[in-house]
Structures are given as C-alpha cells and as structure tokens.
Amino acid sequence: MRVALAQLRSTTDPAANLRAVADWARRAAEGGADLVVFPEATMCSFERASAEVAEPADGPWAGAVRGLASELGVTIAVGMFTTAPNGRVYNTLLVAGAAEARYDKVHLFDALGHRESDHIAPGAELVSVDLAGTSVGLTVCYDVRFPEQFRTLAAGGAQVILVAASWAPGPEKTRQWTTLATARAMDSTAFVVAVDQAAAGDPERPGRPTGVGHSMVIEPTGRVLLELGTAEELAFVDIDPTAASAVRMALPVLSG
C-alpha cells in the first residue's frame, strides 16, 4: 500500500481548502498513492467557528471529495465538520474512494485551556474501513492520547490506523505528538499514519489547535519510517500491512 501524507495548512475558507485538497490529491495520485491522508480540520481551520461551515456528510463539500476520489482513482481521508443535533457539529474524518466511511471524533479536546465540547459533539462509535483487504482504523487528534481506542481497533483487525490531527502548539507539544503516535503503534502493533497540519507559527508557543507538523508513519514495532518537518509537504511511504500480523505473532500484546 502506497500512502501519501498531505501535511497542508488549511485556511478559514472551505472552498479554497477544497481546491487545495484537489491539487494535493492529484499530485498524490500521480505519485502512485493508493491512499492520501489529510489532517483534521482540512475543510476549515479551527481559527473559524466550525458551526459556520459544517455540512451534512452527503453535502456539497463531501460530495466534491467523493467525486475527486472517483476521478483520480485514489482513496482520500480528510478532516471536515458535519452537522450534529443541538447546535454543535461533529469533527469528522471522511473516507472516500475505494471505500466509504466516516468517523466522528470520540475524545474531545477539553484540556490545556481548550473546550472542544463547547462546539463539537462526541462521536458514538469506533470505525474501521476495508481498503482492498486491509483494515484501516480511523482516529482524530486527541484520540491519540487514549491507547484503549487503538488497541480496540487493532483487536478488531485493523492493521493500519490513521490519526488526522490539527495539534495545538505549545511547550513540549511536538515531543508529545511524536511520542504518543509512536507509543500507539507499539500498543496496537499496527502501522500508525499520523498526519498533522503544517505549523502556522512557532510550535512551542501556545495557541489554537492549528498544527505543529511532524506528520509520521510508524511501524508496529515502533520504528519510525517517516517524519516530516513543520512546513507544508506531500510525502509518500510504502507499507506492507500484512507485516502487522507477523509482529503480533512475535509480540502478542493484544491478547494480554
């Protein structure tokens, strides 16, 4: 499986961000990617109220992503905001292309001075999707701090787990991001593909969750296959998802 990591920096304009998704996905397809993974909040940066841009999961923004995936023959995983009851929205990871799925973020970022639950409703279930015989688990940002979610996805068969993020900057936050992503790969003995937004400024300076960069791919053993810097970048990595099975036989942590 060839995976493209689209470490972009989204704006507050969903139309402009959709054009960026089209450009990056096209380049990913030209590079031979089977799957291109975009960050959380690709539809619209957290610098704008999510309720102002949220659409149904079958609305025009998601529909355009589906059309793009079909046109290019690549599966796209992209962060967006979908409508929810009671005035809040869902923080959604949409998958379109060879398979169709949506995951609404379960663990909301009510921490370190932020209260995501004021405007985001929590999702109700964990989600995996089958991509050409590979089970791919879906997670969003703050979920990476909860090992049980990754272990549950892996116990259900996930060989690859995606983390779409717009990680809040601040002191030691980059180190926390890279450490947590690596730990979750080892907890779950799965490949972890963790794609963050590119940094908008100093990653060590506290601010809204707009990204610190450092998107990563980690093997089930914890070996880092790829780590980006802080700037916008499209990168590719080839992984063999079946390698997760060999690691799990040698290191049966999921049966413990």
Automatic annotation (TrEMBL):
Q: Which InterPro entries match?
A: C-N_Hydrolase, C-N_Hydrolase_sf, UPF0012_CS
Per UniProt, what is one GO molecular function of this protein?
hydrolase activity
Where would one find coiled-coil regions in this protein? none
Keyword annotations for this protein, in alphabetical order, are:
Hydrolase
* SUPFAM superfamilies found in the cross-reference section: Carbon-nitrogen hydrolase
Record-annotated CN hydrolase domain positions: 1-241
Q: Which family does it belong to?
A: Belongs to the carbon-nitrogen hydrolase superfamily. NIT1/NIT2 family.
Q: What is this protein called?
A: Carbon-nitrogen hydrolase family protein
